[in-house]
């Protein structure tokens, strides 16, 4: 049985990787090496010429070093970038200076798929949100008031009991609508033993959508299942195994979801802006292939990118962002994603996502980030945080 991200390979990474104490470092150049190609298959079919104009290899410039960095965020009107370590600490990096903002290291669980997993700032910049698992394995989405220096007035927005230690999801992101989207895995175990992916009575195996500025939060009136009897009204999307990372396209508002697979297929799902209520198929399907033929998945939506587990050493998809920056013109309009074990990073044109091109490599790729200027970053569980640059 294969676990979600982090995978069994990540167990070794978490126990064997020894990183220096968190500190900003002088930027250095990291030249990606070539890796075995990974075949991507998807709908719609690829068209000739997709990917033309892309740089042959991107450059990865190290800006900082941390202990198992797993999540990245920026804040409105703030020049700092914020890095979350799986061990429970959130840091602000501004130039050569690093400042610890929140320390949950005494509270987070230490399992290989647990800990501090996600970070996001409210669009106003006034509130900070972290996704983390406590000593009992329970998922918390916790809010702090934040003035750019001090995090205070801590409160839990929501919590979710986890039946197993794996498949915790962890992604937090504010959408173009100003609401908070929360990724939760199917609860763990192999093959979704509780059938949570297809159940609308649980948050597990879902992406939730809420307004966190409530008591404790508010469910938006246009959530797709708000008026569905028996369904949890916070649900935005379902049929997901472990949506470790997802992101919104800054230009279109579309949602791109990397859902970590079981034994055979990794997948990326694409959701047009505002198209909530979609079923992404797990556990009736893994990728675009049948998984459990005894499970019905009504109106399941096929992924736009799939690749086979094991090709080039692959194991867990890491969703990135659609590039909308200005420094790498040939990359504009391409979705970046990668694989934790293989380390390769690929670019897929948004209008033809099956046509992927390998553009670099980051060992033990754990996450991507997007700056206020729309330039991109890549995080390695080994410790480095890289800015993505032109060759």
UniProtKB/TrEMBL annotation:
Q: Does the keyword Isomerase apply?
A: no
> Superkingdom of this entry's organism?
Bacteria
Record's signal peptide: 1-18
Disordered as annotated region, ranges: 24-46
Q: Keyword annotations for this protein?
A: Signal
Stored InterPro entries: 6-blade_b-propeller_TolB-like (IPR011042), Glc/Sorbosone_DH (IPR012938), Quinoprot_gluc/sorb_DH_b-prop (IPR011041)
Q: Where is the composition biased (Low complexity)?
A: 24-42
UniProt-listed Pfam families: GSDH
**Residue span(s) of domain Glucose/Sorbosone dehydrogenase:** 67-379
- Matching PROSITE patterns, A to Z? PROKAR_LIPOPROTEIN (PS51257)
Q: Which named protein is this?
A: Glucose/arabinose dehydrogenase
**What species is given as this protein's source?**
Nonomuraea africana
């Amino acid at each position: 049985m294969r676990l979600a991200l982090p995978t069994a390979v990540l167990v070794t990474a978490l126990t064997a990787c020894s990183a220096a104490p968190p500190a900003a470092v002088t930027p250095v150049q990291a030249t990606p090496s070539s890796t075995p190609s990974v075949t991507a298959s998807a709908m719609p079919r690829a068209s000739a010429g997709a990917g033309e104009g892309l740089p042959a290899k991107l450059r990865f410039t190290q800006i900082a070093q941390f202990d198992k960095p797993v999540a990245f965020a920026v804040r409105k009107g703030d020049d700092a970038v914020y890095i979350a370590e799986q061990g429970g600490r959130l840091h602000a990096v501004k130039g050569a200076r690093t400042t610890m903002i929140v320390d949950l290291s005494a509270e987070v669980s230490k399992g290989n798929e647990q800990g501090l997993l996600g970070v996001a700032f409210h669009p106003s910049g006034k509130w900070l949100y972290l996704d983390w698992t406590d000593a009992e394995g329970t998922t918390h989405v916790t809010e702090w008031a934040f003035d750019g220096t001090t995090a205070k007035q801590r409160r839990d927005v929501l919590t979710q009991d986890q039946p197993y230690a794996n498949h915790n999801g962890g992604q937090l992101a504010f959408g173009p609508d100003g609401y908070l989207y929360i990724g939760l895995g199917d609860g763990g175990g192999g093959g979704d033993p509780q059938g949570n992916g297809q159940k609308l009575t649980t948050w597990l195996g879902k992406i939730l959508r809420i307004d966190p500025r409530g008591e404790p939060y508010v469910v938006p009136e246009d959530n797709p299942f708000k008026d569905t009897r028996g369904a949890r009204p916070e649900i935005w999307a379902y049929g997901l195994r472990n949506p470790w990372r997802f992101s919104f396209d800054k230009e279109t508002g579309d949602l791109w979801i990397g859902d970590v697979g079981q034994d055979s297929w990794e997948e990326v799902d694409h959701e047009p802006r505002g198209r909530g209520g979609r079923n992404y198929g797990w556990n009736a399907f893994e990728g675009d292939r049948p998984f459990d033929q005894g499970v019905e998945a009504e109106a399941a939506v096929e992924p736009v990118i799939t690749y086979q587990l094991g090709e080039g050493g692959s194991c867990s998809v890491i969703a990135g962002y659609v590039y909308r920056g200005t420094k790498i013109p040939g990359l504009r309009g391409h979705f970046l994603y990668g694989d934790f074990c293989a380390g390769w990073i690929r670019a897929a044109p948004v209008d033809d996502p099956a046509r992927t091109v390998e553009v670099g490599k980051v060992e033990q790729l754990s996450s991507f980030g997007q700056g206020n200027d729309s330039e991109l970053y890549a995080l390695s569980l080994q410790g480095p945080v890289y800015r993505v640059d032109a060759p």
